[in-house]
Amino acid sequence: xxxxxxxxPGFDFITRFSEKINVPVRDNFLExxxxxGEGYVRKVAFGDDFxxxxxxxxxxxxxxxxxxxAATSNNVxxxxxxxxxxxxxxxxxxxxxxxxxxxxxxxxLLSTNDLRTEIRFPAGSTIQYVVVGIxxxxxxxxxSIEKPNGTLKTITAENASxxxxxxxxxxMQLLLNNIVSVDMNNSLxxxxxxxxxxxxxxxxxxxxxxxENATFKNINSNDAEKLLIIRNEILSDLxxxxxxxxxxxxxxxxxxKLKQLFKQTFGDSIYNYYQKARMEEAxxxxxxxxxxxxxxxxELGFSNLSHFSRLFEKQYGITPKKFxxxx
Length: 327
Fold this sequence. Notes:
Layout: E1 2-6, H1 13-21, E2 29-31, E3 37-45, E4 50-59, E5 63-68, E6 76-82, E7 88-91, E8 98-101, E9 107-112, E10 117-121, E11 126-135, H2 136-143, H3 150-156, E12 163-167, H4 170-181, H5 189-209, H6 221-236, H7 244-251, H8 255-266, H9 270-287, H10 293-299, H11 305-316, H12 320-325
Parallel strand pairs: 1-5
Antiparallel strand pairs: 2-3, 3-4, 4-11, 5-10, 6-9, 6-11, 7-8, 7-10, 9-12
């Protein structure tokens, strides 16, 4: 099933979805019919300039959501909080599908509505995510920051064009689960959801406020698509350090432009991003896959296990051996 829309002022996702599957919306709630799967889509509005769509469903066929860019700037910021139960893919600019989230990697995507996106959810996947739509004016009012850093200035500026990624840490995952699971039959729960969404946004913008101040460069759909390819290239083989010249060739960018846009989008340099992902994979293999320290170290390309242990302890504050024994 393909659901396509244009991110224009006044667009209402739940209404478009309702028309697509020919199921009525009742009290801003759309229940997925049994012949399609199970679950729901819910809309919660805190005014015309701050809205929330909650998605929780499992479908019997693939779902492809295509967002076409708005013809004119409407200054709406879209925040996509995804708590990963299964893999899904996103792409920009009608190019090949690029994995947006690796297994066990919940993520946040924050963007302007002038970027073309296409997200595919495979059939049989547990889909659980929240999309916040908020105008730049309302966001400035909500944040009320006297001296924002360069990243927050860009996000709240008029006529900016950007894409930012952040990880969804355990505290944020718990908040997201609370929002998705709330019983809206209680009349006070609209207020509860608003508080929890703002708490979720606080944690996100707190992370973004810690990013280094740097000159911001507007991004387009082609740049976004290339950056996702580069991210996937880095994560595809964590046993080998990325080579900047090779990545720049893949992205068809100069090394300088690639470094700038990657750090701007993902909040870290290419090499640091690789090393953090490498240690996160190590933590997963130690704890979930129950592999030994030596097995994990060698699998991730370390010939010197002492070096592996030092890097792991630097990131997690504990040696990999002790980490593997913690509950």
